[in-house]
Amino acid sequence: MLDTMRPSGSNEERAESFRLCEAKKTLSQAEDGAMSTERALVYVVDDDPSIREAVGSLIRSAGLRVETFASAQEFLSSPRANVPSCLVLDVQLPGLSGLDLQQELAKADVQIPIVFITGHGDIPMSVRAIKAGALEFLPKPFNDEDLLNAIEQGIARDQRALKRGEDLQDEVLSDLNFKEIVGKSVALRRVLMLVETVAPTDSTVLIYGETGTGKELIARAIHSLSPRCSNAFVKLNCAAIPTGLLESELFGHEKGAFTGAIAQRIGRFELADRGTVFLDEVGEVPLDLQTKLLRVLQEREFERLGSTRTLRTDTRLIAATNRDLSAMVEEQKFRSDLFYRLNVFPLRVPPLRERAEDIPMLVRHFAQHFARRMNRNIETIPSETMDALIRYPWPGNIRELENLIERAVILSPGPALQVPLGDLESRTPPGHANGKHRTLEDAERAHILATLKETRWVLSGPSGAATRLGMNRSTLQFRIKKLGIVRPGT
Do residues 182 and 195 make contact, with C-beta atoms less than 8 angstroms apart? Predict the structure, then answer.
């Protein structure tokens, strides 16, 4: 029935070969700190006692632990302290079939690599099993080595999945303890260190960054690490509210204050008392409303529209913008006094192209997130795909990457992530072709940074960066500060 009864090579020889292979893998994984010292556990479910005994003996001879069950019901009802690393499962079982058991495990979100064995297999059945996530489909009689190889692959897949989960947890819950922020690049860590510095204070923070870089996540991190974390975090996108309604959104209104005001409304600053208000796209606040916003920052008081009663608020303000507010001040499109009041502690969130080393982490994070949500099983990301994602300049930043990975998960019927790379090539903006930068500010920052590296961060003197750039030292220092350039290691 099984190859254990054939003379073509002894069980002991094959088992020894398997043990050596396992020993090498165990040593390698132990060096990486990724594997438990406990032997892998394999479950066997088959209604034929001789098959259970022979397969169990073969697995034990390979140095693995094994438990056997006569039916799917026995497997499901038995008390199990550990989830196995691999499940060897007969297709034809009394009562609940092997394929039915596979579906039940999937519904319960129990991820076990499955190797199917059957004496009644056919092509449609094997296709159905593999599509549902089975690792292998072996018809009886099968070769012992084929079964051991399939089990070995299952154990390896299980350990890789566990390690991916641990790695992902380390990435998301980084050593700086920012729960929602993925990445470990130097540029991101520099921002998070500043977040930790400013969070315990009540100072106003102004977050600069392109659209889609995660400015709201940074604002939430500041709130979460602040003494106000137990109180409200109230956000408002100033660009999404019509100009005539923005004042009401910020400060509230009384019933009858204007046409359509059929009831009293509480504004964001009142809602966020003792908490934090996050104003995204603050550069879109009209000039006539900027005076009232400045008053809230300075005096911590305001009136609702249609009311003469002055209200006080104990609110911390965090603002964000993707515009150059200092340039808007020069163009008289933004009040200078409000700008200086907002710009107490500026933070620049780097675009994704400046933290390309974080892209693999973000891709894995989004792939796992959408795979769970769509009940998909994404296990691998082709290296050529990852290389293309790293090279792409991402003008839409993390939001664009997230949307692409969501679409990729939808388009991936199997375990490999299929990213529509043609879409990236077709929509690469002209300013990013051949690695060029999208804005003049990006180009200036890159040019200054390259010059500083060439001069080893020496600013003055005939060979200094200021001379090479054709500007005086004080002007260069101003540009370095404005562009958020920081010397590595400082």
Answer: no
Cα 110 vs. chain centroid, distance in angstroms? 22
- Indicate the range of 8-17, 271-280, 401-410, 447-456 predicted with least confidence: 8-17
Is residue 69 packed enough to be buried (19+ CB in 10 Å), middle (13-18) or exposed (0-12)? buried
Core vs surface per residue 342-352: b (16+ CB within 10 A) or e = bbebebbbbbb
- What phi and psi, each to the nearest 5 degrees, are found at residue 290? -65, -30
Residue 141, preceding peptide bond in cis (omega within 30° of 0) = yes
β-pairing verdict for 345-348 and 316-321: unpaired
* 362-419 pLDDT tens trace: 999 999 989 988 888 888 888 888 888 988 999 999 999 999 999 999 999 888 999 9
| Cα–Cα dist 364/46, whole Å | 36
Torsion angle defined by CA atoms of residues 58, 62, 66 and 69, in that order, rounded to the nearest 10 degrees: -20
Whether residue 358 contacts residue 214, with contact meaning beta carbons closer than 8 Å, is answered with no
Number of helices (H) and strands (E), helices first, in the chain? Answer: 20, 14
Tokens in use for 179?
């729960």
> What is the C-alpha separation between 451 and 428, in angstroms, rounded?
27
CA 292 distance to own-chain centroid: 38
Contacts of 278 (CB under 8 A, 6+ apart): 216, 219, 220, 223, 233, 234, 235, 236, 318, 319, 320
